[in-house]
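Hi R.,

Here's the input for the zinc ion complex you asked about:
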Amino acid sequence: MHDGIATLPFLMGEKVAVITNVPAEICSECGASFMKTYVVGNIETLLDRIEEIQSEVSVIYYKAA
Ligand SMILES: [Zn+2]
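And here is the predicted structure with zinc ion in place:
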């Protein structure tokens, strides 16, 4: 695993949020990415905000709080 930046999709019912620039651990072998634990709270806040948006697909640039 090494540090990197990931673009991660999140499904919320019928809506999809794609969050880019997420600090992540990237698997050196298969390239799978896992968001770092310290960003989870921020992501949840972002997703809460997105739930109020009407569009079905949202792309959000992650910024550290
Ligand atoms: Zn892997």
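One thing worth noting: The chain has one domain: 2-61.

Cheers,
M.
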